[in-house]
Amino acid sequence: MTTIGIFVFPGVEELDFVGPWEVLRAWERMAPDDGARVFTLAAEEGTIECAKGLKVVPDETWATAAPLDVLVYPGGMGTRQHLGDERIRSWVRDVARRGALMTSVCTGSLVYADSGVLDGRPATTHWGSLEHLASLGKDIEVRPGDRYVDSGDIITASGVSAGIDMALHLIRRLASEDRARQIRRYIQYDPQPPV
Asked: Mean per-residue pLDDT for 124-147?
């Protein structure tokens, strides 16, 4: 079983977590033999109000969740309160220390940088926060043109919709390229923006 926790918190950007959740839950349901278990996760129980007003009730909390094999840390204005928060820093470091594959979407990477897990690594974030990313850690190689950056045990994705790309890449890593293609086709993800 591969446990994949998608962190939700007040002010989380909706598509930052719902995009990866949709991709990964489709994988879980379409290919149960692959052994993925995908769930939303919050610091504690209760309804979470997201950035645009969507309300969600997380599946698990830090206290109830099984040990994570993958953490998805989305972004949004709510991440600003996480910067400098020792409780968040400690949790992020602990999840990383236990060997989880650390993934982020948008400004979730700022929290990773603030926690020190991005020191000396390449990473990306939302285009509006690239300079902030560089200032939060030590020797972070900021990659402004990348949709996502895979540095082994950490994968960071740029803004919002890039989380879908990152989740498909994650399926490719954890299962196969064919499986990732199957899921991409199922969700009919073929971006051709009209503008």
From this structure: 96
